[in-house]
Each structure stands twice: as structure tokens, then as C-alpha cells.
Amino acid sequence: MKAVTWFGTLKLSENGDVEECYLLEKDTEQLAQHMLLAVENEELPTHGLDLRELALACGFVELDEDYDVLLREICIKAAKRQISMTDTDDKRIIQAVEAMDDVDKAANELSERLTEWYGVYFPELELTAESMARFVARFGSRENVPEDHNMFSKASSSMGAELSLVDEDLLRNFATNLCGIYDTRKNLEQYIMANMGAVAPNLTNIAGAPLGARLISLAGGLKKLAAFPSSTVQVIGANNALFKHLRSRAPSPKHGVIFNHPFIKGAPWWQRGKIARALAAKISLAVRMDAYGGKLDPSIKVNLERKVESIRKAHPEPPKKQSTKVTQPGPGRAGGRPAKKRGGQKKGGMNKGSKNTDDRSGGRPA
Amino acid sequence: MKVEQLSDGIFEVIIDDRKILSTHNLYPGHSVYGERLMDVDGVEYRQWDPHRSKLGAMVLKGFEIPIEYDSHVLYLGAASGTTVSHVSDILTDGLVYAVEFSPRTMRDLIKLCDQRPNIIPILADANQPRSYAHIVETVDVIFQDVAQPNQAEIAAINSKYFLEEDGHLMLSIKSRSIDTVASPKKVFKDEVKKLEGDFGVEFEVLQRKELDPFHEDHLGVLARMFVEDEA
Ligand SMILES: C[S@@+](CC[C@H](N)C(=O)[O-])C[C@H]1O[C@@H](n2cnc3c(N)ncnc32)[C@H](O)[C@@H]1O
Q1: Which H/E stretch holds residue A253?
Q2: What is the pLDDT along chain B (231 residues), one digit of tens a residue?
Q3: Rounded CA gap, A277 and A232, in Å?
Q4: I need a surface site. Which of A46, A312, B129, B208 has the fewest CB within 10 A?
Q5: For chain B, which residues lie within 8 Å of any Cβ of chain A, measuring from their own Cβ?
């Protein structure tokens, strides 16, 4: 019997005696590499071996202690290498996406505070969020707004309170930090834009970098996303809506984050479910290629565009069945104007309006 | 301060009538998970928190701990090494193979290995003993704390591979990992029964006790492996 061990390959007799030893070099790098590769090896021992005895018998080491010291060093090396391999590019994208969420939360909170606080001194200033932070960081007190600035007249006639120097410093500092947070957000965005193409070329090509990154992050990794059926891809990120649906019979969510794709966003409500399904299917296909190291294949996007086009062509008008269900088609309504309720439904949410059409065609959350 | 030895490398430090389970600190001056360090006559002891460690709880519940100072131990489900660190303290002339399958957790365990010469980290799935059969030698003791639905099976297949004849298996069974609704007593009974024969290895259960109040719904098991006569 042949057995692969961490220190070499052994030929053993029926009763376990060593017949031949093919020892590896005592080079820790190589031994660690071999230890990791061996896991794929067919000839790993099929039962436990007294490896220590065998290593001594083959003369790989002379003392028990040498065995311990060497094995420990190699195992630590191998484990470190395994860990660094789990820090894959998609994991870095996930960190960036999650960091972006954290940054958004922090920015929202701080900017609300700034609006509240600075509003005391310059209530007429109609800026919000980032533009407000930039304004305060730059000028501090409204008295510093120069004549050629478009806020000058509002600033000079403001009913706001006086701003003391100490408070001005504090506010300015606060606003400057907030600007830094907005800058960080831009950096993260740029990072995602710059890296998604390498991490998942096909996904990026059809979903765009931000949406693609979001999908990877929600799934927990590229491989995990690739393992999802496309019906799940369609509702990823709709969790809140999904729970709501389960709890209170709210409309079932048709699409999760892929709702943000321009193909869906730009489509009329009655096409959205169908387009979402087509998009989810292509995203699944793209992600599977990416997960297995595939190169960019532009035909996926071309096919998707064709499919979307044919959905548009096939369903140019909103479905009419619904109105017949809701109200008796009165004589005056023969033209098929949507029932009265239509307007309300649209306002209430796109989901509601097209729910029936969708359920019929199988657009359910997974 | 007084010290009593319970078994190889396991002590109780007595401070004001309070007995504190502890081990000799192999890496003096350093605490691993925030536990207390105590100096008694120039020797540093490290408090062993039974609430944080199934093995620690087993000691206090009166289990006969089969780990000797020169044992070779296979530890399945090492996590970040809370308990492994105490096993490492005990094994002044031994070795522990620490198997853990979560890379994130292994990161912490490796920090511990860097400080202690007798822990050998293995990032692998304990369901696949073959994937580390080229690394792990025959061992005297297997300790398992993986909190998985197939705990008995994992223990058995690893014993089959690595446990020497007459070697000991120590196992913590978490009933909720197996069945969240069934009564723990029934789950324990079923698991022990499985262990005793379902997987082609036989064990003689030497001791079994629940680990409360340290760990609710956990059963500790100490067993010795029988070896079938090949003849
Ligand atoms: C309850 S914790 C162990 C705590 C540890 N024994 C201690 O006392 O410090 C269970 C650990 O087992 C690990 N685990 C679960 N299933 C495993 C498997 N199949 N192979 C290896 N490790 C596993 C988990 O990642 C987790 O870290």
C-alpha cells in the first residue's frame, strides 16, 4: 500500500511495515505546500497511521522533538496560507460594500446633526447633506460668505443667531470631518468600480459594478451567489419586504436589489416582473462563469438586451384582465381604461399593481 | 494560597476557601481570554473558567480526565483556543492537534499557536478525517466539541482513524445542535447509543454526566474505544 504523509510517500507492507520511503526535502516552504496539495491526493492514508514512528523509521527525523518542532512549523505555515487564500477578492469587495453602508449611516446621522445645529445660525440656507457640510466647512459663519457667492444675500439678511468664534470653530471642525466621511464614501465607490471588473467581469458587465457588488455582498461571496438559483437572485435583498409579506400578507416582493437595474427601473410596471426574471437568469449565468474564473463573454449582455426588447414588444400595454376582475365593465368603460383603483394601486407600490400577473407566471420568491 | 492537584496538570488554587480551577501557565504573564493569573510560590497558575470550557466543566463534574502530561491529543472544534490553551498547559511533554474549520476562527487560534510550542493547528473539516490523515499521528485522547448535528458520527470516524487501542474519547454533546425540540435526555440517550456501535467502532462509556450548571443541555461523555479482534 502506498500512503502519502506530510513528510513523504511511503510504501507499506500488508502488516504496516515500511518497505520504501520517498522522503521530501526538509524545506518548510515546500513541506507546507505539499501538505496543502496532498489533500487533493488520492493516496492519502485510508486509515490512521503512526506517522511519528514511520518518520523515525524512515530517518526523516531522528528525535521525537524534531518531529514536533518541524510538524508544528509546517502546520502553522499551511494554515496561514489557507487563511490568506480565503481572503479572496470578492471578500474585499464585500468589506467595501459593507463599509459603504456604515459610512452612509454615519454620514446621515452627522449631517442631520449639522443641519439642526447650523440651522440655528443660518436657517435660510437651503443646502442639505454633503453640500451643507462643504459650505459650513468652507465658510463657518454666514458672515464669511463672499459677495459673489449665490448665498450672499440670504446670508446678509439672515434671521439666524450670532455665531461665536468658539462655536464656529466647533461647527467647522464637525463639518470638515463630515466632508472626510463623504470623501471616504467616494473612495469606496471608486474602489468598487475599479475592482469589480476583475472580480466578476460578466456580472459587472450586465449588472454594473455597484449592483454587482451589492449582490455579492448580500450573498456572502461570489461562489455563494453562484450557487443560488436565479429565483433567489431575483429577490436577494428583498428580505424586509419578504418578511413583511409573510407577516402581514403584504404583496410578495418580486425583486430585491436587482430592482435598481435600469432595465427594470425604466420599465413600466407590468413588464417589470418579466424583465426581473430574465435579468435574474442572466445574472445567475454570468455569476457562474465568473465564479469559475471565466473571461468576459459579451454575448450574455447581448442576449439579455434581446430578451428585454422582446418582452417590451410582447407587452406594450398594461394587462386589462385586472380591471374586469375588480369592477363590472360598465358600458362607459368599454375602452378599457384601468379601473378606478388603478391610480391608488400605483401609488401604493408597484408590487401591488402587478401582483396578479406575476404570481401567475411563477414569479415567486424562492 | 494553597494548591491542590486534581490530575496531571490540573489544579485547584485555594484562595479564602474558594477553589479556583486552574492550570500551570505555559506562557507566563499572558492571559488568553481574560482569565485571571495567580502566582503561588513563584509558579503562575491560570484560572480555567468552566463556564467557557466544556472540558473545564467536565473536570468539576468529576470526570476522570485521561489527559496526561505527555499525551498526544486530537482536539476537534478548537475554536479560538479557550480550552485548547488549558490542554496545552497540561501537556508539558505532549502535543495537541487542534482541528477547526472556520478560517476566521483559525486566525485567532494561530496567534495562540505562535505562543505555544505544543499546539498544532489544522484548518480542516472534522467530517473528513482523511483530509488530515497525512498529518495526525495515532493519539491517546480525542476531545470533541464541535456542536454539530452528527457529533457522535464525527467522534466515531475520527476515533477509527486516529485513536490508539484503548485510547479515550471525551465528547461534549449539545442537544440543541441535534434536535431543538426533542427533550435533551432523549437526544443524549440516542447519541450515546449511536456512539456505542453505529459507526463500526465500539466504545465503552465510562462516565456520562450533564454539564449543568456550567453548560445547559450539554452532556459530557468519557468513553474508551474497544478494538475488535481482527482474528
Ligand atoms: C462550541 S465551539 C468549540 C469551543 C472550544 N472547544 C472551546 O471550548 O474553546 C465549536 C467549534 O467547532 C467548530 N466546528 C464545527 N463543526 C466543525 C467541523 N465539522 N470541523 C471542524 N470544526 C468544526 C466551529 O467552527 C466552532 O469553532
Answers
A1: none
A2: 789 999 999 999 999 889 999 999 999 999 999 999 999 999 999 999 999 999 999 999 999 999 999 999 999 999 999 999 999 999 999 999 999 999 889 999 999 999 999 999 999 999 999 999 999 999 999 999 998 888 889 999 999 999 998 899 999 998 888 887 788 888 888 888 888 877 888 899 999 999 999 999 999 999 998 866 544
A3: 10
A4: A46
A5: 95, 103, 106-107, 110, 113-114, 117-124, 129-131, 133-138, 160-163
Burial of B159 (0-12, 13-18, 19+ CB in 10 A): buried
Alpha helix (H) residue ranges in B21-131: 54-60, 82-90, 103-115
C-alpha cell read off for A141: 459663519
Distance B105 CA to ligand 1 centre (A): 9
3-state secondary structure of A72: helix
By the CB < 8 Å criterion, does A302 face chain B? no
Enumerate the residues of chain B whose CB falls inside 8 A of the CB of residue A32: none
pTM over 0.80: no
Beta-strand pair B43-47/B18-24: antiparallel
CA B213 to chain centre: 18
Which of B102, B106, B112 has most ligand 1 atoms within 8 Å of its beta carbon, as the pocket-test mutant?
B102
Question: Quick check: B131 and B125 in contact, CB under 8 A?
Answer: yes
